[in-house]
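Figure 3 (text version): structure tokens given as input.
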């Protein structure tokens, strides 16, 4: 290996730690109620959901001085967040108590939280949704792409942040199992309360 190449490798290695220190990663868990909308709302009752996520600011914001710790606790203005969730509803079927619709989701989202929002943020992204309808002796499912968007608020505490969030999920296409065969899109709004580590 030539001396010039070795010098360039050493320079790149020295710069890499500085860049990596800029990125901050956080983990979150949340739960709450999910309100079905549209045709889904005609077929099922209000349900529940569980959510787990990982987020990073990818080094896109690095405050300095005493403000750095404050901003790190409050969160970066722009973050990338990946969510995994499960949502479940019970069907409105007379005399049937165990028929349910379930949505397993994985989404990639952008989260924007300008300082002037005072802890508030806007979130939106795309994802895959595996939707199934289950009852005694019957199961059907499908996997489709969808979009989501919403708003939230983070409250910094000593070592964690609490957050509240409302999201709207839209999965297009006809005959989704979760709408009991209705030729319409699947739509639902989860309201979440959680903690960020």
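Below: residues designed for each position.
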């Amino acid at each position: 290996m030539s001396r010039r190449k070795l010098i360039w490798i050493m320079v790149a290695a020295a710069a890499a730690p500085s860049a990596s220190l800029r990125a901050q990663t956080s983990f979150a868990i949340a739960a709450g109620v999910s309100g079905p909308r549209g045709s889904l709302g005609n077929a099922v009752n209000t349900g529940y959901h569980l959510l787990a996520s990982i987020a990073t600011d990818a080094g896109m914001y690095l405050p300095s001085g005493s403000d750095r710790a404050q901003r790190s606790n409050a969160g970066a203005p722009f973050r990338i967040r990946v969510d995994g969730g499960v949502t479940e509803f019970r069907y409105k079927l007379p005399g049937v108590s165990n028929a349910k619709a379930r949505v397993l989701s994985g989404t990639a989202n952008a989260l924007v939280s300008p300082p002037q929002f005072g802890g508030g943020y806007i979130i939106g992204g795309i994802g895959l949704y595996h939707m199934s309808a289950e009852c005694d002796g019957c199961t059907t499912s499908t996997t489709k792409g969808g979009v989501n968007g919403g708003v939230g608020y983070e409250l910094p505490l000593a070592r964690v942040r609490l957050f509240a969030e409302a999201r709207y999920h839209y999965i297009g296409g006809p005959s989704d199992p979760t709408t009991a065969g209705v030729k319409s899109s699947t739509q639902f709004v989860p309201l979440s309360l959680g903690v960020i580590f």
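Residues 23-196 form a domain with the Porin fold (CATH 2.40.160.20).
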